[in-house]
Amino acid sequence: MSKKGILLVNLGSPDSPEVKDVKPYLDEFLMDERVIDKPYWLRSLLVRGIILKTRPKKSAEAYQSIWWDEGSPLIVLSERLLEQVRKNTDYPVELGMRYGNPSIEAGIQKLVDGNPDLEEFVMIPLYPHYAMSSYETVVVKAREVMEAKFPKLKMKVKNVFYDDPRYLEVLANSMKPYINKEYDHILFSYHGIPERHVQKTDVTNSHCLMVENCCSKDSPAQQTCYRHQVFDTTEGVVERLGIPKEKYSNSFQSRLGRDPWLQPFSDKVIKDLPGKGVKKLMVVCPAFVSDCLETIEEIGVEAREFFMENGGEEFTLIPCMNENDDWAKLVATWGEELL
């Protein structure tokens, strides 16, 4: 029995692609105050009074189009990563999800049940970049669970890893088999967030989206700036792969609502690229470490259609790192370094 352990945390997924399971999953996700950062009464009105009236059916259809025999791709791939990480460390390792099942509480409970002498564990949020609606909400939720259910346990938290040279090396190597083929352009499509989220996490309250070329100017704000961090990841990858500056760009996908979100938007960029001479396009989604609805369906299906309908000829979605051996080894190493 070990006194130390590791908990991996990913986003989550509905229990099934049916409306009855998609609706409560969306409710938990969208009612998170770090996802829709409005007062509770307004968030409840928007989510439960408007969005959940129609969105579950549409989302269920999208999930049904990508669902595997084993279950949700994100859950299945996270479980495969879990097994690979276990092979690379002697510490016990469990898995939790921010939304849906298994919950963060369930993941910690499994660590405790399997290791009655457990004193501390490292939580590794599987998000390379800092955002209110991803990394931050996982940390806040985990601390709430710890205070309420496991007050005697000690938890350490792995920081974001967008610029860790080892992570950049693994990510770049996972892309190599694809970019060794002929292509015109590589699009780094990151999950979008509202502009106000970037400004809310600005510890200086005076830098992000307020200073010209803010992401390229050193500032304490960059420690929690999603926009700066995703650009940094792109630069670290293209440097390692030797991708010329004219052959890559960044964009943001998955926007919701009418508020200003980070731009340029992936769907618009992908529609416009064929008119700029790009006939062979590759898209990679480094905000995600596991393939999921946003990569498989939104990019692999919808974006592919946009590209081909507008004159594109070849569209390649580069998979996430998923259960890549080197990625699993690195995750295990991070856990051990903090224990």
Automatic annotation (TrEMBL):
<keyword id="KW-0963">Cytoplasm</keyword>
<keyword id="KW-0627">Porphyrin biosynthesis</keyword>
<dbReference type="InterPro" id="IPR001015">
    <property type="entry name" value="Ferrochelatase"/>
</dbReference>
<keyword id="KW-0479">Metal-binding</keyword>
<dbReference type="InterPro" id="IPR033659">
    <property type="entry name" value="Ferrochelatase_N"/>
</dbReference>
<keyword id="KW-0350">Heme biosynthesis</keyword>
<dbReference type="Pfam" id="PF00762">
    <property type="entry name" value="Ferrochelatase"/>
</dbReference>
<protein>
    <recommendedName>
        <fullName>Ferrochelatase</fullName>
        <ecNumber>4.98.1.1</ecNumber>
    </recommendedName>
</protein>
<dbReference type="GO" id="GO:0006783">
    <property type="term" value="P:heme biosynthetic process"/>
</dbReference>
<dbReference type="GO" id="GO:0005737">
    <property type="term" value="C:cytoplasm"/>
</dbReference>
<dbReference type="GO" id="GO:0046872">
    <property type="term" value="F:metal ion binding"/>
</dbReference>
<keyword id="KW-0408">Iron</keyword>
<comment type="pathway">
    <text>Porphyrin-containing compound metabolism; protoheme biosynthesis; protoheme from protoporphyrin-IX: step 1/1.</text>
</comment>
<dbReference type="InterPro" id="IPR033644">
    <property type="entry name" value="Ferrochelatase_C"/>
</dbReference>
<keyword id="KW-0456">Lyase</keyword>
<comment type="similarity">
    <text>Belongs to the ferrochelatase family.</text>
</comment>
<comment type="function">
    <text>Catalyzes the ferrous insertion into protoporphyrin IX.</text>
</comment>
<feature type="binding site">
    <location>
        <position position="294"/>
    </location>
    <ligand>
        <name>Fe(2+)</name>
    </ligand>
</feature>
<dbReference type="GO" id="GO:0004325">
    <property type="term" value="F:ferrochelatase activity"/>
</dbReference>
<feature type="binding site">
    <location>
        <position position="191"/>
    </location>
    <ligand>
        <name>Fe(2+)</name>
    </ligand>
</feature>
